[in-house]
Amino acid sequence: MSVGTQPIEDKFSSTVDETLAAEITVDGVIDPDGLIPLPILISGTLARIQRWAETSFDDHLEVFWFQDGKEDLLFDEQYPTGIVPLEIEVPISASRMAIDGSALLYYIVTAFGMPDRSPRKPLIIDHTQGPGEELAKAIFINLTPYGYYNCATRPELTSGIVIEIPTQPLARPNDKFSLHLQGYRSLNGSPGQDGEDIVSEAVDTFVRNLDDQEIADGFSQHVPFKPCIEPLIDNDSIVAIYTITRGGRRIGTSYPALAKIDRVIPGGASCYV
What is the mean pLDDT of residues 99-110? Predict the structure, then answer.
């Protein structure tokens, strides 16, 4: 939904001098210029907003996407009781990032009756970007022979899962490693038409700087049950893709790793709910 054609700068001429709105962050986007990695363009991601420093009893949050001269409202929420979550997640679908070009992401928080806009986060959308080297895919541990996590999985899924990352011969110490997981309402990790099968709440990202031992031997990444696994129950799946960057430049991206999830018990009930 477009929110009008009024020039952006004019809308904030009356905002408060004291800044409440901090910079917004986007999962998986670590490039200083805002280049969105190709796997994120395909899978979608989450923007994250930290609770502002001072809350009132009638706060209002609006999140905007500005691209090609058009401003779209992504998120609109009132907090009339003054209880604002410590962190607010805003899904950004693959369809939102379908058009190549530059975009700006920002939000307005209105507290005490006065609006304040966050710094605008630049984003670069480029589906033609080279993915770098194709890296060996991550390995989901303890899958069934048919590639499933289910109610018989041990350890139980409520304790989380383990993903093995293989050795990284192209990496150097202090290269940045980023593992992104996304859940889907499909068994094959497909986002569906216009991203309809993306489970927006089933997402997680793990980032670290690699050391010599991790590069030479590989390592394990524990993934907790929440938030990524819990929403996935019946004929769902989860995809893991990792990237390695050096100084903001992509060195390589892994092949997607897929795990299917079936938590339905014969008779219609589900485990771990």
Answer: 94
More confident of the two residues 117 and 23 = 117
What range does the domain containing 92 cover? 20-125
Query: Are residues 83 and 160 part of one domain?
Result: no
How high is the pLDDT of residue 10? 42
pTM recorded for the entire structure: 0.58
Domain CATH for 38: 2.60.40.730
Q: Answer with the one of 68, 96, 125 that is the final residue of a domain.
A: 125
The string of pLDDT tens digits covering residues 227-267 is 999 999 999 999 999 989 887 677 888 999 999 999 998 87
Out of 125, 158, 188, pick the residue that ends a domain.
Answer: 125
Label the pairing between strands 257-262 and 148-150: parallel
Judge contact between 103 and 125, C-beta under 8 A. yes
Determine the pLDDT at residue 30. Answer: 74
Structure tokens at 196: 């309809």
Out of 84-98, 188-202, 245-259, the most confident range is: 84-98
